[in-house]
Amino acid sequence: MNDLIDMWTLQPQQTTELLQLAQTIKQRPAAWATFLQGKSIALLFEKPSLRTRASFAAGIHRLGGHSIYLDAQNLIGEREPASDVGANLALWHDAIVARVFSQQTITDLAAASDKPVINALSDTCHPCQALADLLTLQEQVGALDQIHFTYIGDGNNVCQALMAGAAQTGMHMQVVTPLGYAPDAAMLAQAQQLAQQSGGSITLVHDLDQLQSTDVIYTDTWVSMGQERDQGAVMQDFAPYQVNRALMQQLNANYFMHCLPAYRGREVTAEVIDSPQSLVLFQAENRLHAQNAVLVKLFEGAHA
Ligand code: CP
Ligand code: NVA
User: Is 157 in the pocket of ligand 2 (CB under 6 A)?
Assistant: First the structure.
């Protein structure tokens, strides 16, 4: 593994190994306390963040490394191209964690940098979130290939990362979005093909009446960072897709998940997200452990 550009570049076996490693590091953190000693990692953010920024900073510290936060709002593209940013950062840092508007920026950073680049969210993918979510499902729900999982809402970055992760691990995932908010068709096809090999399944519907019973319901914000959506249209298009007590009961769902930040009263009711069925804090906690597994995998060769 040279980079974590998106979820799609991971082989199913690599995803499984990352989840195992995350468990191991979580259980025995002391064994990894000097793994990144002497290493410096740049955290480059074009968009706001709480969980990703704070969990990378804390996680790198726990591995004995050092991180710096670079506010890249209005930096990449406007001040200098991503290729120059990547080439320069690689002179002083051992890896780059980047949250960007366009997936192309991740690709450009990785091409210009001879150090690992980790996607900390782009318009098309949020691999660190998906890995933490798979870890949470394993811990809190059970074997991934036995799980029936429903993603409801906007079919963008988080949904697409989860589709890849679900397909790699044999999960049964149904995606339900309003018309016009479906995940990328090529990614859906890729996930469906991959799921055939892993024994899982990925389906897409727009009609809530076509949903099957599920173990878990997952949702995300209706307006992602950087999107300029008409509020009225958003409410009209997404309102029927709110996760509330009635939907949880209709689908026999035992668990609720959300990447956060969440907007109570919009994509989910407070009654659901603040209930014992909600796994959101387990997900947030596992961001650190999943990301530390990624960092260990990326630098493993350096320790061989
Ligand atoms: N879930 C997530 O990525 O949260 P932040 O935007 O706060 O980093
Ligand atoms: N889809 C959301 C995820 C936030 C973690 C966004 O891109 O803003």
Answer: yes
